[in-house]
Amino acid sequence: ISLIGYSEDLIFSIAWPIFIATVIKSLLALGALISASILLNTIVIILIGSFVDKHKRLSVEKLGTVLTAFVWFGAAFIKSGLGAFLFDNFYRTTRHVLGAPLMSIIYDEAKNSSVMKVMIFREMSLAFGKVVGAVLSIILWIKFPDKLNYLFVRAGLLTLFYLLLKERSRKDGLSIPPAQPDIAVPVQSSKL
Q1: Among 99, 41, 40, which residue's Cα sits nearest to residue 65?
Q2: Total-model pTM
Q3: Is 187 a residue whose pLDDT tops 50?
Q4: CA-based angle 51:56:61, to the nearest 5?
């Protein structure tokens, strides 16, 4: 259920570009804003990776969740190019604070159990989250067609689903059934 939070990425991928194009009319300014944001964030990602390595992953993920939700709530009030630039930077940064430990937890779980089951579970959870997010967004957009910023509040609320994530002990796993052990077939040795 915690991976339903991933549906907020759908808003960033679809609604945010539409919104930002309504705030910034010049394509050159829009391109410069996004380029500067991505460049700055490239540096920040390296720092976040180092930070995640030094702290408890679940604590960093929780911090990233709360910060990302607050950034989404703030996006509902953006009215200028500067606001869009700041949101874009803060969102990308907080999303990495959330995403780096989350992926680390999932990949460790895959390494310690069935890789295929964990990855399929992850992908199915992400797909389910995006479907839930899309349906909720469409309902919200139909009800309030001129209020695109309501989608940002919804994204903030769905981001909070990540708070439900719990890092389990190695034996508990992600509630994925354990892999079936290979059945040993006795091999008769031939004496030469």
Answers
A1: 99
A2: 0.77
A3: no
A4: 75
